Amino acid sequence: MRNPYLPYPVRIDDITVETEDKNLKTFKFVFLDPADEQKFAYKAGQFAELSVTGQGEIPIGIASSPTEKGFVMFTVNKVGRVSSFLHAMKPGDIMGLRGPMGNWYPWEKMQGKNVVIIGGGFAFTTLRSSIVYMLQPENRKNFGEIHVIYGARSPGMLLYREELAAWEQRDDIHMHITVDATSDPNWKYNVGFVPAIAEKKAPPAGSDTYAIICGPPIMIKFTQPVLDKLGYAHDKIIMSLENRMKCGIGMCGRCNIGKEFVCKDGPVFTLEQLNKTPREY
Amino acid sequence: MKMIAIPKKEWPAGLAKAAGSFRLFGPVKEKEFHSFKRLENGQLPDFSCQNTRLSPKHLVYPQSEVMLTYSLDESRPDHHIMKEAPADTSPRAVLGIRPCDAKAFVLVRMNFDTPDYKDPYWLRAYESTTFVGLSCASPCSSCFCTTAGCGPFHEEGLDVLLADAGDHFLAKVLTEKGAAWVAAGGWTQTADAKAEGRLADLRQAAEAKIASQVQTESLKAADTTALYNAGFWEEVSFACINCGTCTYSCPTCWCFDIQDETRGTSGVRMKNWDSCMYPLFTLHGTGHNPRGTKLHRVRQRFMHKLKYFVDKYDRGIQCVGCGRCVRLCPVNIDIRRVCGLMNGLAASGEACAID
User: Fold this and answer.
1) Interface pTM (ipTM) of the complex?
2) Which residues of chain B does A46 touch, with a Cβ-Cβ cutoff of 8 Å?
3) Residues A179, A147: one domain?
């Protein structure tokens, strides 16, 4: 069995500044050994440890979709030591990638079902992976209606703006983009917090509809009552958690919620599962 | 497996012989306290110690361990690429480990040896080691091993069990590894027919001396969130100073941190013991901390050992009753009492599982 602590060597292929505050950048990585890309086979919703040699590792959700080949992509917020160092790195620099880790959104269970994605801020990364995956022509027929409710503080803080605009033009996905506030007279989408937009735009609950929620704690806190009001059952509400992590393989002991490790047994849980655990996240 | 008699006068010469094929480790007194160390040429393990102050877990799981190495020197073709650090996996024998500490490795193995992932550092150290246990004829007053799934003559995790029988050791050979170690020492005298009976008598006498107990029978059926929300955590954690002594001295605590350390252009990625008692252990980059108070952290330690572990593996509690945390806690937090509170709440029906 491979040493699970040993990262695959990767090269930074491209860096994109995503947001107007320049705190979010998207990194595209290419594996130095092309065979490693096969070993890194992943599903939408999983994460990996980005290993910045000499600095440390950070667990980050995979923003590219398994349907996109030749690279893997991560969007990283500049927060601490490793992410700040990473933000100062350049295309061509060598680092490491360990993973993929954790479980994924329940794609098997969601076959043939309607999916509503509710995201806020920079937690949209694995949701982007999911949307790209579902919209792939051979996958799209496997899902019913797809709704996306995605909000950020301002238009300039939305991630993947060009893709959002392209998805807006399609008729096989219902986009509900929103910002908390804007002074832009040309803003043609929604204004309001995510929970309020979700209340207006989310499809009716039913045994055929799953909601995937990913966002800051405050958004989750106010979105859950909305979904309750709309009648979503707790086993149909899917959430992706974050906790401080080191090993990413369920051994180092810090990311647990009860007996479950967010890194290995998660990060994806149903609200029904979370109701039974000490919610230490 | 067979029982060997090792006359004490043949013990030093046999160890010298075994040192030819094993790196030997054993309890050694340094200043005031005993600890497990590599034995120097001709040095004997000191079996007079009741038990070492710290557990021997560092032999398999060092407090700091280099996992990977790297170079930042861009003139090298492999710059910034992590490499596995070399390791010495030649056979070694740990002499005089107490049964509780040997059983602890069996519990910790469940964390590092899983169907999905295997920790190569822990496993190769464990697998290259032969554990020669020394049974406890006179356990400490704070030991509660017999109700913690263990005992003063417990054999789980041992390759050989030694019992002091006056002028000789009775050596019960439990595994092939143990047989290889006995052969390396050149001890060949099979114990007489009464040896089994003598060992059983010694065992019974030792077990009778264990005065302290824990009650654990209701923990498994208890509802996790009810135990988590129990009223007693405020009082249990009140005096805790989050010093981490309990976690560092515990043979079954395994939490760790990973850090990169660079000097000049070369460096290492290492694993260091960490502790759930420290706020940094769970602190998010945003400043949010899901276990931000000492109540959270004390509760995590006891819930992990006495409930989460029980539920996850169904192999009893994550504690072998060695009593170190009881003896060393500066504010007298006692796992036996906390276990009683948890088990009591569970038994009272207030914490029964709903489904």
Assistant:
1) 0.93
2) none
3) yes
